[in-house]
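FAQ
Q: What does a multi-component entry look like?
A: The components come first, one per line:
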Amino acid sequence: MSAPPSAPGAGADADVVRSRGSAVLRPGWGYADVSDKIAGIVLSGRFGWKWWSAFLAACAGVALFLGAVVWLLVKGIGIWGVDIPVAWGFAIGNFVWWIGIGHAGTFISAVLLLLRQRWRTSINRFAEAMTLFAAGIAGIFPILHLGRPWFFYWIVPYPNVMNVWPQWRSPLVWDFFAIASYLLVSLLFWYVGLIPDLATLRDRAGHRGQRGAQVAYGLLALGWRGEARHWARYQTAYLLLAGLATPLVVSVHTIVSLDFAVGNTPGYHSTIFPPYFVAGALFSGFAMVLTLAIPLRSAFGLQDFITGRHLANAAKVLLATSALVGYGYLAEIFTAFYSGDRYEIYMTVNRWTGPYAPVYWSMLVCNIVLPQLLWWRRLRHSVLALFLLSLAINAGMWMERFLIVVSSLHRDFLPSSWGMFYPTLWDWITLFGSIALFVWLFLLFVRFLPVISMAEMRELVRDSAKGDA
Amino acid sequence: MSAPLYGLLAEFPDAHSLCAAARHVRAHGYTRAEAYSPFPIEGLDQVLGMERNAVAPATLLGGLAGGAGTYFLQWYAAVVDYPINVGGRPLHSWPAFIPATFELTILGAALAAVAVMLVQNGLPRLHHPLFEVEEFELASRNRFFLCLPARDPVFAPGPARDLLGELAPILLREVPA
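Then the predicted structure of the entire assembly, as tokens:
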């Protein structure tokens, strides 16, 4: 159903409570309207040629990705451009980039929930899905990079016939615990948030006579009925999950940054890394939120729920995190010169003028210069400008990850061990294939699950009717 | 009344009337009354007489168990079972054990929070007598329901029906067990 808010569902079914309208929700929506609108996207199954063509294209990309992975398993990581001295190439850069993208979802859900930010309500669900998919894809890359990926489980501590344990003092082992915990906690947070909505879908499917969907959603909803005592425990659990996820978000990219900072390679060995990585993660994550939200709202007519205010607020977060990232860049440069260490200074100058300088300067344009446009209100409210800018920031953050990984390694301490990293075709296929996998997962999510939390939208309607939102 | 009864179900149009109804039946001695709403209503569980909410303490215990277990695992592996002398550095190098301990503290707490929430709520549950009532599907959309279950000590079919009738519900139904 796509009833315009000016003509909400009339008749015996009409709700007495209607949203009054605010920056985060347009007026005239009742409990039934928001539920039917969001559930209708999934249950009506009217996904036109656009969804199908995007899905088929994503399928092709996923097939390529799988092909690249199979070839990697057959031939080994020699198919990539990595070698000594640059033993970490695209795979580690992609890993850091994806895990960064996977930060905004939990940040929006958890931190903004604790801060009681109303504008989080209509974007948290798909941002959490984004987090889950991005973190999952991120986890693939270090495994692929292992050389013998089928032994990746050796990093798990379990009593084994080899009589060895993981090296607990290694950041790579910390990384395993960080990523695994983050994935599981994000999954729990997302699923717990979905339970009341799955119950709505179960009941709506039953109402429409869609028996198969009713059974499927019914099983996933675990028998949720919305009893007051259940809601009370549910809310306690949800709030606690938010409180737990908040330090977790900060810790995950901190530990990822320790993969670098603990090593004494020039350009890695820096105390600014943990906060700098976390700021970069939020920056790229919010850029990806905009990249996804803008097509999503126009494809399904969700402009009443994901309003200009949501986009403008995300733009302000981008502006702030861009400044933090810029501070990180400056601190790196300052520390290098202040240390007086010739290798640190050489690495910094090499970034400016060396073989990877074009990547460095493009990164600065994408991450620092272009976001300054967001100081203008008009641009924060221009959907097209925000979309293009979010793409530029995604690209810029990928360049940053690439640069951190490669520019420190390609000039070793001795000039005799200098070298270059040139990505091969397989490097590129793996990168774009992972993006296709992300799109593929997101398209399936949009098809089968509610993209906006219906239960929270009903609360927003209630608060809006009272004039609180 | 021949068929066994789960209870009586009344339907209300908004959260306000549901809260008023809940207060009314509580004043008449009902301690097991159940209220169903499409979104959480603050304080309604208190009005109805919430018994136990063990989610918060369970979360704490889950976190402590996760953290202590992980620290012990690292200590046992690095000091007792597989000690490696690296230039005389201490085997019990506790700062390096913190990251994994921290992560699994969070994971243990989160798992405990969700598990206890589900168990105390009696979920997952494949079926419930209320799902037999056709109108109850609106409880997850836009309607508010109050149920007086037959297992409530003060429940008697006639007076219960009159009590709910006083509240002028949209609908009043018997729910077969």
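Q: Is there any commentary attached?
A: Sometimes. For this entry: The two ends of chain B are 12 Å apart (CA to CA).
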